[in-house]
């Protein structure tokens, strides 16, 4: 190429490439920052009337779409800069393959330092400062380039196996769990908080049968019993809600609440003698399949304002009983109050090589505790596992 061509066209071409590299770095930093900011912190900035906070709040309300937009802008600027640098090298260097080699090496270094590592590190270290400055321009670009971004997402989903995503791919549950573990390792969340977050994820994988009070341990009262007897049973056992049964425990007719029993006892008199039948005070019972997921059951209890459910097996018999406390304990751990009796721990070490294990302990918990693999495909508890392996019902003790 001639020197005149280099001097008249190559320099502006190089300047444009530099500008595109800087823009690509800015978009990369904004991408990293947008993935780091929290909604609670942004709402606090809005209350403080910080400049750009309202625009940032609008961005994170549709975070996946704007993350994809920033990715598109960064790639567009980076590829355009690569083309311009290659053209500049072809004009400035006589040998074609040498020019391509120089352009390739230069853009690898520039992309790694000025577009990749540098801006993304700044974005993660100062996410709110970066996004308060970038929120306005990103919102404008989102309105202008929104149709193009959505079109490219549709094209990507069309050629990708599976159903795709309406707003493009985003984090999976596994990735979110890994992020929580990373936050725990860096001290962002403590161990109790990390375990609680993992428990929330596991709630959707846990079914009622795994946490219910089994049929054999249900405290119940017969329909023919009196309010006085029901109140005495409630005070003796410490339970505030007791199932009312007919002919057998498979015939659950309702639930009696200690508040109703206490009210009847206090009011007394001829109108509501406490020797009346519990039938007059019982409330309707809620029945759920023992395979119902706990997250769905918790939502159902919240909507129906019901704190107890009777779990029913596939044959229609009573399998067990659950309360809202049983579900919450799967998230926050054991909940006890001054009326709860001291319970024996599910696993108790007797000596160096001996442990006492509750028959109700889930098999997967036992396997995790002792770091062993157990075939629990047909059973849920240690008691069931022993019965399966022994071929008989083991004796208590």
Describe this protein's structure.
The chain has 397 residues and is α/β, with parallel strands linked by helices. Helix content is 58%, strand content 10%. The chain has 15 helices and nine strands. Helix 8 packs across helix 13. The relative contact order is 0.07.
Fraction of helical residues: 55-70%
Whole-number mean pLDDT: 83
Largest sheet: 4 strands, mixed
Please indicate the percent range of residues in DSSP E strands (runs of 2 or more): 5-15%
Pairing-aware structural class of the strands and helices? alpha/beta
Helix and strand element order: HHHHHHHHHEEHEEHEHEEHEEHH
Number of strands: 9
Give the uncertain stretches in residue-range form. Answer: 1-5
* Number of contiguous helices: 15
Radius of gyration: 33 Å
Task: Count up the domains.
Answer: 4
Gap from first CA to last CA: 94 Å
Q: Quick one: overall form?
A: elongated
Largest sheet: spatial strand order = 1-7-6-5
Task: Give the secondary structure arrangement, pairings included.
Layout: H1 3-34, H2 39-47, H3 53-61, H4 63-92, H5 96-125, H6 127-159, H7 173-185, H8 191-203, H9 208-211, E1 213-214, E2 221-222, H10 227-237, E3 241-245, E4 252-257, H11 258-267, E5 287-289, H12 294-304, E6 308-312, E7 318-323, H13 324-332, E8 347-351, E9 354-357, H14 363-370, H15 382-390
Parallel strand pairs: 2-3, 5-6
Antiparallel strand pairs: 1-7, 3-4, 6-7, 8-9
Brief description of this entry?
The protein has 15 helices and nine strands. It is of the alpha/beta class and 397 residues long. The strands form three sheets. A four-stranded mixed sheet has the order 1-7-6-5.
């Amino acid at each position: 190429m001639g020197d005149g061509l280099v001097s008249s066209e190559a320099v502006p071409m190089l300047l444009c490439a530099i500008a595109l590299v800087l823009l690509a770095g800015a978009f990369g930093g904004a991408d990293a920052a947008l993935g780091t900011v929290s909604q609670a912190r942004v709402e606090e900035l809005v209350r403080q009337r910080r400049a750009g906070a309202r625009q940032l709040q609008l961005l994170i309300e549709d975070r996946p779409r704007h993350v994809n937009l920033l990715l598109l802008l960064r790639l567009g600027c980076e590829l355009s800069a690569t083309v311009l640098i290659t053209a500049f090298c072809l004009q400035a260097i006589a040998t074609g393959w040498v020019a391509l080699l120089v352009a390739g090496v230069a853009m690898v270094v520039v992309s790694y330092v000025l577009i990749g590592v540098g801006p993304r590190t700044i974005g993660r270290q100062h996410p709110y400062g970066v996004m308060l400055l970038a929120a306005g321009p990103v919102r404008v670009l989102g309105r202008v380039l929104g149709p193009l971004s959505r079109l490219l997402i549709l094209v990507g989903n069309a050629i990708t196996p599976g159903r795709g995503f309406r707003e493009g791919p985003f984090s999976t549950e596994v990735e979110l769990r890994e992020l929580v573990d990373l936050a725990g390792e860096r001290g962002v969340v403590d161990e109790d908080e990390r375990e609680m977050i993992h428990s929330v994820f596991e709630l959707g994988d846990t079914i009622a049968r795994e946490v219910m009070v089994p049929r054999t341990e249900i405290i119940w009262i017969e329909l023919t019993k009196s309010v006085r007897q029901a109140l005495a049973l409630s005070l003796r056992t410490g339970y505030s809600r007791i199932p009312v049964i007919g002919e057998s425990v498979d015939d659950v007719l309702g639930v009696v609440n200690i508040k109703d029993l206490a009210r009847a006892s206090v009011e007394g008199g001829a109108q509501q003698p406490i020797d009346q039948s519990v039938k007059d005070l019982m409330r309707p019972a809620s029945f759920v399949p023992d395979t119902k997921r706990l997250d769905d059951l918790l939502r159902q209890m919240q909507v129906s304002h019901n704190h107890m459910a009777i779990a029913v097996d596939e044959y229609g018999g009573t399998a067990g009983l659950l309360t809202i406390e049983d579900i919450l304990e799967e998230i926050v751990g054991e909940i006890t109050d001054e009326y709860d009796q001291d319970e024996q721990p599910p696993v108790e070490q007797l000596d160096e090589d001996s442990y006492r294990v509750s028959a109700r302990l889930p098999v997967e918990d036992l396997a995790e505790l002792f770091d062993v693999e157990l075939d629990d495909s047909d059973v849920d508890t240690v008691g069931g596992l022993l019965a399966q392996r022994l071929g008989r019902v083991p004796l208590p003790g």
